[in-house]
Records
---
Amino acid sequence: MRRSERLQDMLQYTNEKKQFNLKDLIEKYRISRSTAIRDVQALEMLGMPIYAEHGRNGKYVVLDNRILSPITFTADELYAIYFAMLTLSGYKETPFEQEINSLEETFQSVLPSGIKDRVKKMKDSVKLDTPSHSNEAPYLKEILKGIIDEKVYTISYRKEDSRNMTVQFVTLQAKFGQWYAKIYNMNSSRVQTIRCDKILQMRESEEKQPRELQYLLSLLQTYHHQPGATMFTVEVTERGKDLYDKESYPSMSLTKTGNIYTISGYYNTNEEAFITDYIIRFGKSILSIEPSELRAAIQGELKSLVTHMEKLN
């Protein structure tokens, strides 16, 4: 094996280990001690963050924030990576905002000139916008790391009023430019969805034992549908179908019969106001609404809106 090939393989080998010693390298690559020492020095020059622990049982330790070994990409794979970076630029905040900026600088510095010209054209031509809002979510990075590391947090959350909850984060998602997290509430032993910008403070907690992430993910299949939920159907025109495509939720589905589209789903007892406001947005594209209780709630909300408008100057 040529030295360049050996170093390439050694980067991958040491990258997967938290610690190693010269004997490991000598036995794996069948090289002398002096060659192993020179190879370790070469790895350090390539950027592998290694430090030596001296003594009888001396060893090399690879830092947790270590680099990944170099990977060869095709041109289309490079375009795909850069396109993914562009999609993140549409968000006001992301979990790794500063890192993404430095990643783009690094990415640009290593691209071949021909590829660099093409990705510049991509950046100038591709515009991926998300709805703009002024809500700030400063804990996105901590939330994502908390999911990965399966940690429990005590958070201060603002809804109608401020409250403290002990939670484990399960998922992080963005919808219409707004960041949401699904949490497992340790106090109520159930899954909830919260807005990340409503989190005022969060700190790691050791009061409760964390649950395995795979178990919490399995709860997402049925967590939302509560006992006593109301089933509904709304028939709409093609214009209503377009509105549904722009905004819909996991508790809903859309089917087509001829030229009529049917939105089916359910809402829980405490979600009547939400579903009422949502269906009102479909306006004159609505053809029918069931059950009658939901139809009456929508009519009541519309009358309230008319009364409010009449009071305006």
Note: The mean pLDDT is 86.
---
Amino acid sequence: MNIHNIAGHLNDLGDRSQTGLQFDCYPIDGEIDVLQVNIVNREELPIFVSVTDNQILCISYLWGEDEVKPDTRLSMLETMLELNIPMPLSSFAKVDDKYVVYGALSVQSSMLEVEQELSVLSDNCLEVIDELVDYLK
């Protein structure tokens, strides 16, 4: 399993996706190869996929620390903790000064499982933004 296999599979799906979503994928070469996965009509929230020896990591950036209303930050963090468990297949984290939602799969996962993870992660991002918009500037 590698990002090129995932990209080929998702790009070839077209409108035959089990999730009803269409994917547009772009490999990004670097020290660690990353796949940028755009979901058609949700391009503003790309998902970045990397593959290691034992996991497939899927991450989407939500907003930066500078976009959070300072007087609501602690309340936002508490809300994020409360949302973490009922949010299927995804968790919150912070990478540098950016808040993210991420999910991980085994490298033994099927392409259908990868597709489902990306779909759920994208749906969760939309729900999180709706739920937490009041904490943002």
Note: Helices lie at 3-13, 73-84, 111-132.
---
Amino acid sequence: MANERVQSEDFTGPLKRLLAGIIVLCLLAIFLVWRIDSPRVERFRMAVIDRVVPNFDWAMVPVTAMVNLVRDFQSYQRIYEQNQELRRELQQMKSWKEAALQLEQENARLLDLNSVRLDPRLTHVTGVVVADSGSPYRQSVLLNVGRRDGVLDGWATMDGLGLVGRISGVGANASRVILLTDTTSRIPSVIQPSGQNTIVVGDNTRSPPIDFLENPDLVRPGDRVVSSGDGGVFPAGLVIGQVAKDPGGRLRVRLAADYERLEFLRVLRNYGAERIEDTGRLIRPEELPSNEPTEPENFDEDQTSEAGNG
């Protein structure tokens, strides 16, 4: 076995060197033929090309396929980069769209605030809701207006659709608004068109119930509920919502204000009606002075004096 391997190597070694030498000589001859600048050699080169190159089309197929593959890969790489760029632009456009929608909603709320019809005697100051300080047991929000803007406790607040709540706590630069849905909220109201007086009681839900209704038979779902102004808490005529009936048959108020998106609130300056300190004057009129005689008494005295003289 070892002798056969040695003989084989002795035979193939010189053969490899011979083939390598022949290949080098052929390549050198081709190089020289290709570099010789002679008309005869040029005609020989063209004849060789005409005879050999057409027969080597099959050899060019893998090369052509490889070139097309490289080109397709480069094209795919460019398409991938363009796709990534388009994705980035789409994401940026989505953010712009979101910003545009927010501005559109903000503009709609400001327009709603401007379209609210109020008593001409009522002035207002508009504030921005800066935080929601509510909890499961307390429904309130914070505004960026306070004592510096002349805000006082108890003033009513509205959005562009209806009554939201009242001021409860005023700071120098902020104030807190207790919403109508808070459990401490009690709003004297009137149901139109029946004119029934009632009280809207907050219960931490978006549809507070109606209590102390005089005649429920005169009230229908869809009737308008506005503030009555009783007690001097809120001005009269502020829209609260519409009457609705829950599955249990209890009458509730579907609030007109959009509590899902409270962004701007209008604080109504209501300094109240004139206060009467001396209530006794409402009960009895002023007494007449005692030194003024009355006509019947003078008539009796004249008759008595005439009778004595006679």
Note: The helical segments are 2-35, 39-52, 57-115, 295-309.
---
Amino acid sequence: MHVATPSAPVDPNAPKPRLSRRVIAISLGAALGGFLFGFDSSVVNGAVEAMQHDFALDDAFTGIATAIALLACAFGAWFAGQIAEKFGRIRVMVISSIAFLISAIGSGLCMGVWDLMGWRIVGGLAIGAASVIAPAYIAEVAPSAFRGRLGSLQQLAIVAGMLASVVSDQAFAGSAGGASEVLWLGIEAWRWMFIAAALPALIYGGTSLMLPESPRYLVSRGQTRKAAQILADFTGEADPAGKVQQIRATMGEGEKRSLRDLTHPRYGLKPIVWIGIGLSVFQQFSGANAIFYYSVMLFKTVGFTESQSFWITTITNVTLVATTFIAIGLIDKVGRKALLVAGSIGMGLSLAAVAMSFAHATRDAAGDLSLTGIWAWTALIFANVFVLFYGATWGPVTWVLLGEMFPNRIRATALAVGAAAQWVANFAVTATFPALKGWSLVGTYSIYTVIVFVGLVFCLKYVPETKGRELEDMDDDPPAGGADSADEDAPAPALATA
């Protein structure tokens, strides 16, 4: 049993903490994994219709081929936590970069759909690992006063990667005269879309080798002197030796970590782990990725050409990047929970408007759905309003919370479980959307609307507020109501964890 050492009371006369360039630099370096995460998961957006045509796939199989990487992400996330606990955060980043590189080249040079799915699985394992290791690493190196905005760099990198993939997809398709057309070396444009991920994969791998190891991982391995040096040099910790002792009290040295550490005799898993799983599932079941991954297809339904749809998708991704800066500016001021609540309301109302718009859609003789007039613009506008709210709230805040809400000794493992749940939910949404689209877009977006408002209730009742709290003060069993009634500046009570 470990007893958490409470944080020292806040001295009102103490100088305000400052954000060092070094900790920003290493946080950005870790977030490059998020860039590849966004690029690799979104690159299929521009290739999906050409891939469907070239391999003669129906809608159902197209959904599976598109989403197979997401299912692999769950496995990558699941095992990344255990690997990170055993071998360190940096090694997971390097392994991920190698897998990204292999996947990019293999996907671009695939011989058939089954071949492509295999390479996408490799990429999915890399994405899943990157989705775990970046938020965990950033949370563990960031000072508590700036942890929210530094943690949000992960989401900023994800959406920047998504934007880069859309721009590169558009450039390849435009240069070739269509995604299915041959571009260079006798290779179709959609294949170059996948190969393009090789460059950021190489950059990510090289950058990872230059990052310092997480001080909390080093403490768990008994390397306390090195951990204290990193805390002093990169995080600006005024008392690195004291912080190391605090970390040791909540983490222990040399103890083996396993999924068994997450169990609870009454609930199966510790309550905080269930909350992490709930956050992940509600983030994905909002239907966000149905818009991100299939935006070109969706906008063509509204009446735009492939070229126009690419441009509108680019605008959508620019909006997503811009709104992430809103989260970066607000998250350490208003807190995580307030942003989630505001986001749920805005996202739910936006989805309801999109559903209402598609109630006025018509089908042509071939059975293709289309929207015209004011309802086409209503769907387009509110889809982007949804993106605005998601990008400023649930998108970044979920990753920040997953990186910081768990106690030190279970953080990487619990984050892996939460991220794995997120990828399974992501797979479910992405794989079912083409079929649901064929069934009823009104019904599909209505389902997403209901789920968002259920997520609002979940957030209000269970999600803890972690703003301003040290990682050493995080609890296995947060009180009902999300623990946001506690005084942030008061010392946290000692915690007994099994």
Note: The chain has one domain: 21-211+258-484.
